[in-house]
Write a structure and sequence with these properties.
alpha+beta, globular, 42% helix, transmembrane helix, hydrolase, 27 strands, single chain, protease, 6-stranded antiparallel beta sheet, PDZ_sf, metalloendopeptidase activity
């Protein structure tokens, strides 16, 4: 669904497109310098070049690999397990990319989605929308660990399968390590069995997946268990030109008291504000300084072309002529009235206006579902004002009432589509994701699709992010967080949840200022906040990067490990068929799969723009 701009100021950041331009300029200069040194013969023998990539080669470490490879039976069993995992992931990656490409072409309206922007394919902090510059140390550490264990796995299995190694090394893009490599001896590699080659290619991703599980096990266990949420309401964003902004409140501050009364957490802030009368209040920040805030009811978010006609930044001054300055005052003034007259100061600074609006839960009526069976098809937003006899002022109130319903229950629903009021008797269906009844609506959060705030702050759900990582805190994802693999899956998605809209902010580790929302405690608390947060960040990004490396290398296309495993697996299958197997048959299969993957990937990135353009 299309929500309007939130209008909140987040912590300072460099815009990705601007930084990407400077990164590309720097790489061109770097590349020119490398070409000059190479042409002048000034690069050492152990340094090679492939475009702007420097490769550093060494023969050291082969003796260590020989010693580590002695328990060959163990390593073969380990890699056989990895082959099975790699094959499952390969098939999954093929299906995923194919479906993602089809979805991208069928929904060209999503072309501008941040999740689908080409720059977000690059794991470069500050360029990628999901990865802030503050996450750089953790990402680089995780990448180094991933490259070492991946290529170390290849090297180890080379020696297990008696494949000689010409050299090993690391590839650098400027100062950034982008890959590691092991160069098997070609003749020795060709003489190895097909099973031996397959195990060797699968060893890298096997190690990456193992490191992922280890890193997240440590993170979810003792490390996050030693982190707690600090007292106060966590300020994640501040609306422009809001009372909070005028008072100097900034993102990453904690509101610890209102008029001298302590604020324990995010949920407590609304209660403290509601319990405080008057348009002027004293807000204590971070348990230290106190700022005076002049309250006014500010629209902090609004759906585009919503039923109220309000926009982000508008200020609501009165309801039916009654002056209000707080959210509590707004709902008190509305009372049981379904339609009210608002006095509004527009965000653009224009003249004060009066507007009649419906106050309730804004929803889209879903086609072929219970509510539409009574209302009839409509493309307009509906505002539900009463549900089963109860007055509804916001979607949050409607959601609470729906939770107490059952499939097959008949309920009375009243509301407005445009300016027309209707009353309907609706029989609820089974809900696809819970035990409650299903009305058949797509919700818009807030009141009539509008979010308002007394002071203009957006709260950061610090306890929920901690809960998603295995700590103390309630989450909206229910049973998923009860399993280890469920936590891993959600942890991998945390850096993109804010951009995709699943959560109000991205989580990129305990960095970028959000450390102020947490404190070290328990088992590791004696080491201090800095040490505990550093350890948590390193583990988070090590697990995140290693899983990405494992999945990426399982893509069944050359020159990735998945492409090599596809070749050896295809050879094994064709050799068992009652036909004369040839290299050409294998090549047809691998080329077809590889080209399909490449085309799917390109369509995923650029297909929506091509279709909509």
């Amino acid at each position: 669904m299309d929500h309007g701009s939130l209008g909140f100021v987040s912590p300072p950041a460099i815009y990705g497109s601007e930084l990407l331009t400077w990164v590309l300029i720097g790489l061109l200069c770097y590349w020119a310098a490398i070409v000059g040194l190479r042409n002048a013969g000034r690069l050492p023998d152990y340094v090679g070049t492939q475009g702007p990539i420097l490769t550093l080669h060494t023969k050291r470490g082969r003796a260590l690999l020989d010693r580590l490879a002695r328990p060959k039976r163990f390593w073969r069993a380990w890699s056989n397990l990895g082959v099975g995992i790699a094959l499952v992931v390969m098939i999954g990656m093929f299906v995923f990319l194919l479906q993602a490409a089809i979805t991208a072409l069928s929904t060209p309206e999503m072309a501008t989605s941040a999740v689908r922007q080409p720059r977000n394919v690059l794991v470069i902090p500050g360029v990628n929308d999901f990865l802030p510059l503050s996450a750089t140390p953790g990402i680089v550490f995780g990448l180094l660990v991933g490259l070492v264990v991946h290529e170390g796995g290849h090297g180890l299995l080379c020696r297990v399968e008696d494949i000689d190694i010409d050299s090993m090394g690391i590839a650098m893009l400027a100062v950034l390590p982008v890959s590691a490599f092991v160069e098997p001896d070609q003749e020795s590699s060709k003489s190895a069995s097909r099973g031996g080659q397959t195990r060797m290619f699968a060893a890298g991703v096997t190690n990456n997946f193992a490191i992922t599980l280890l890193a997240f096990a440590l993170l979810f266990g003792p490390v996050v268990g030693s982190i707690g949420v600090a007292s106060g309401a966590a300020v994640g964003g501040v609306a422009s030109d809001s009372p909070a902004a005028d008072a100097g409140i900034e993102p990453n501050d904690r509101i610890t008291a209102i008029n001298g009364t302590a604020v324990e957490g995010n949920d407590d802030l609304a209660d403290r504000l509601e319990a405080t009368s008057g348009e002027q209040i004293a807000i204590e920040l971070n348990g230290e300084e106190t700022e005076t805030v002049d309250r006014s009811l500010l629209v902090t978010a609004a759906i585009d072309d919503g039923p109220t006609g309000l926009s982000t930044g508008d200020e609501i001054r009165a309801v039916d002529g009654q002056t209000i300055a707080t959210e509590r005052g707004f709902f008190d003034a509305v009372g049981e009235n379904e339609r009210v007259n608002l006095t509004i100061d527009p965000a653009d600074g224009g003249d004060r206006i009066e507007r009649e609006v419906t106050v309730g839960a804004a929803v889209s009526v879903v086609e072929d579902e219970p509510l539409e069976a009574e209302t009839g098809p409509t493309d307009e937003t509906m505002v539900i004002t009463r549900f089963d006899g109860e007055r509804v002022h916001s979607y949050a109130e409607l959601a609470d009432l729906l939770e107490d319903t059952e499939p097959g229950q008949e309920v009375a629903v009243a509301g407005y589509i445009g300016d027309e009021r209707g009353s309907y008797e609706v029989t609820l269906d089974e809900h696809p994701r819970s035990d409650s009844g299903f009305l058949g609506i797509q919700p818009y959060q807030g009141t009539s699709g509008v979010a308002v705030s007394d002071i203009g702050v957006q709260l950061y759900p610090a306890d929920e992010y901690l809960g998603l990582l295995g700590g103390d805190g309630d989450t909206r994802f229910g049973p998923i967080t009860d399993t280890f693999l469920g936590k891993v899956g959600l942890a991998i998605l945390l850096p993109v949840m804010g951009v995709s809209g699943a959560l109000p902010f991205n989580f990129a580790g305990f960095t970028g200022g959000i450390q102020n929302f947490y404190e070290a405690q328990g088992l590791l608390g004696a080491f201090g906040d800095g040490t505990v947060f550093l350890l948590a960040n390193l583990l988070f990004w090590t697990g995140w990067i290693n899983l990405q490396l494992g999945f990426f290398n399982c893509i069944p296309a050359f020159p990735l490990d998945g492409g090599h495993i596809l070749r050896t697996s295809t050879e094994a299958i064709i050799s068992r068929l009652p036909i004369e197997a040839t290299r050409g048959m294998v090549r047809v299969v691998t080329t077809t799969v590889g080209v399909t993957m490449l085309v799917s990937f390109l369509l995923l990135l650029f297909g929506p723009q091509l279709v909509s353009g």
